[in-house]
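residues and backbone:
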Amino acid sequence: MVRLNRIYTRTGDDGSTGLGDGSRLPKHHLRIAAYGTVDELSSVIGLALSNSGETLPAEMQQQLRTIQNELFDVGADLCVPGEAGNRLRIRPEYTQRLEGWIDGHNEALKPLDSFILPGGKSAAAWLHLARTVCRRAERLVTELAAAPEEAQRVNIEVVRYLNRLSDLLFVQARAANDNGALDVLWKPGGTQAPRA
């Protein structure tokens, strides 16, 4: 169990931060940006729950709380580069669980014949925001994994998990919009004046 007795340590006053393996990196390093964005995603999910939790089905609320916990696992994985021994790592089961939830939500959704815009119910809009933050986290992790010095130091399961999580947040947003009935559809060129 993690125990935090003091919130400030002053060790980051030089612009660096410590990783789980004891090494230090500049706070602007891509690895720090990646797990910082994962933390941001968890916060957005917390906002979705606190602002619209009462309108979300209990099953979806529980899924989102589980995801918030797993996002700490993702951050811990990213915080310890390379081989971690017995340390926490994201495993395929995490992604498989998300796939099961996606399939469960998707069965009841109205079929799509257009892209949709974030909106509809408040809960759906918050979940779409979470989806976009998740995509940003995924882009940062894949960029980190593509760096030659980091290629063998990023767990590919983190990429898979974030990719699937963004899909889940998309279908959850649609489910929160009365299973797609309240989705806001994209109308290509809808604001353009007709051509003469």
